Amino acid sequence: MTTTPPTPPTPPASGRTHRTQAERRAQTRTALLDATVECLVELGYPRTSMQEICARAGVSKGAFQHHFSSKSELMASAVEHLTTRLQRRRAPEARELPDGPDRIAAAIDLLWNSYSGTLATAAMELWIAARTDAELRRAIRPVDRALGRSTLELLTGLSGDLSEERMQTLFWLTVNLTRGLALDAELGGDPRRREQLLAEWKRIATLYFGEGRQCGE
């Protein structure tokens, strides 16, 4: 009786096939952050439990504790993670903003697209909860300030010769308007009204920018 020799193992494909420990840690951390954002958007902050986050991320509670010391730290890191991802996605668009009078209007559209949607929903949940949660407030405040700084840097790059005072005014008006519009969207406000308000602000801001350049500031 002839014995069929065992099939030799398939040689590994060229290149590295195993992830390093650092890559595994990074993947676990990203899974936790993505699951946190998903829970905040779908369930809201009060119903976002560590058990639910770990289940969606496919990791154990011990793995979570290895990466984050508290739920507040995880929440702040999740918003930072989402913000960074959105900024990377918007970077090519920022580099392609048109020149001339249409530049500021296009920049406002870019900011609105960044501040609305998933980021606005997740951040809103945390801002509201932070009002009565001191630990959460301490955790997300640096993240919120960093987001503000990055937005200001974007506007500064478009400012031409505007004075610092006018630049700050333009920045805060734009940020607070876009946040307000994002909240209006979350509450089911009229989308046509939001479009009208955004269009009016772009018109005013374009005039404001033009005035600064004409005054030689």
From TrEMBL:
Keywords: DNA-binding, Transcription, Transcription regulation
Identification of the protein by name: AcrR family transcriptional regulator
The organism's place on the tree of life at top rank: Bacteria
SUPFAM superfamilies in UniProt: Homeodomain-like (SSF46689)
Span of domain HTH tetR-type: 26-86
Keyword tRNA processing appears in the UniProt entry: no
Residue ranges of the annotated DNA-binding region, renumbered to this chain: 49-68
PANTHER family attached to this UniProt entry: HTH-TYPE TRANSCRIPTIONAL REGULATOR BETI, HTH-TYPE TRANSCRIPTIONAL REGULATOR RUTR
Ranges annotated as biased composition (Pro residues): 1-12
Region of interest (Disordered), residue spans: 1-26
Gene3D superfamilies the record matches: Tetracycline Repressor, domain 2
An example molecular function term from Gene Ontology annotations: DNA-binding transcription factor activity
InterPro entries: Homeodomain-like_sf (IPR009057), HTH-type_TetR-like_transc_reg (IPR050109), HTH_TetR (IPR001647)
